[in-house]
Write a structure and sequence with these properties.
Blueprint (H helix, E strand, L loop, with lengths): L1 H12 L2 H22 L1 E4 L2 E4 L10 H12 L2 H16 L2 H7 L4 H34 L5 H4 L4 H24 L2 H26 L3 H8 L3 H8 L8 H9 L12 H24 L3
Helix pairs in contact: 1-6, 2-4, 2-6, 3-6, 3-8, 4-8, 4-9, 6-8, 6-13, 8-9, 8-11, 8-13, 9-10, 11-13
Length: 278
């Protein structure tokens, strides 16, 4: 396992674009901390994001994993380009000639996916912990380590999404086309939701239930948007006669759906590679 992972890390190490994109991804996460500490002035009113409760424990785990999840596309570019380079530079064929089996090749890619997800999750944990210590109103241990399931959901979300990108990279071969297909698939899921909601069932709950089994939607369902969970937003909504009642919890069945899709994508990657004449 370590040998396979080391081979992939050597490839990434020699890829300047991968190093730049990875750096940008982590810098953007750090930028959350910088923006939080800035005090804005609007019409002589001082305003600081950190004072609005976004970085209070345990809410910060929900908020930061949601925001970091939006930025996952940066690492997805590396996953896709990683496969594209295998075809462009013929390193895939060379690895197979050197004795690596196709199963070992897919395993090495999946190990890289896991490594990216683990490192990103640890990084988000550390950034969130530091932000919370500085800006949270409550720093009791029982409060600090509550709602940690959002970090686990974030990890599963990354593994599922990167596995999808890996599958597209192997299937399409060209990184630009693979990313384009990813965007097209997202649009297809949106169209499917519209068809289910307005044409077939005409019921939002039924449409959302069906859509929860689609790959990208199931990954999105792991971490629901957190802003409407804030007390201030809830109060404002009540004042205007709106009721915000969302289920913000991380559910086991959503995790299971994403894990099943992950298995499908990894097996699909192996099946495509196995049948393809290299």
């Amino acid at each position: 396992m370590l040998r396979l992972l080391n081979i992939e890390l050597q490839k990434i190490k020699l890829n300047k674009a991968a190093k730049v994109i990875t750096s940008v991804y982590f810098l953007l996460i750090i930028a959350i901390a910088l923006i939080a500490s800035i005090e804005f002035n609007f019409a002589n009113v001082n305003f600081r994001i950190a004072d609005q409760g976004f970085f209070n424990f345990p809410f910060i785990w929900h908020f930061n994993t949601y925001v970091a999840g939006i930025l996952k596309l940066f690492l997805a570019i590396i996953i896709v380009s990683m496969m594209s380079n295998e075809y462009s530079y013929r390193t895939l064929k060379q690895n197979l000639i050197d004795g690596m089996s196709k199963k070992e090749f897919i395993t090495s890619k999946f190990l890289t996916v896991l490594l990216f997800a683990v490192v990103s999750t640890i990084f988000v944990f550390l950034v969130s912990l530091v932000l919370g210590i500085f800006f949270s109103d409550h720093t009791e241990l029982a409060v600090v380590f509550r709602d940690m399931e959002y970090l686990f959901a974030y990890f599963i979300k990354l593994v599922g999404f990167f596995s999808f990108c890996l599958f597209l990279g192997i299937l399409v071969k060209r990184s630009a086309f693979a990313l384009g297909f990813l965007l097209i698939w997202q649009i297809i899921e949106w169209i499917m939701y519209g068809v289910l909601k307005w044409q077939l069932f005409k019921d939002t709950d039924v449409a959302e239930t069906v859509m929860s089994f689609f790959p990208l939607e199931s990954m999105a369902d792991l971490i629901v948007e957190p802003v409407t969970r804030l007390g201030g937003v809830q109060t404002l909504a009540n004042q205007v006669g709106e009721e915000l009642s969302k289920d913000y919890a991380v559910h086991w069945y959503t995790i299971l759906i994403v894990l099943i899709w992950t298995a499908i994508f990894i097996y699909g990657s192996y099946a495509v590679l196995k049948k393809r004449d290299l």
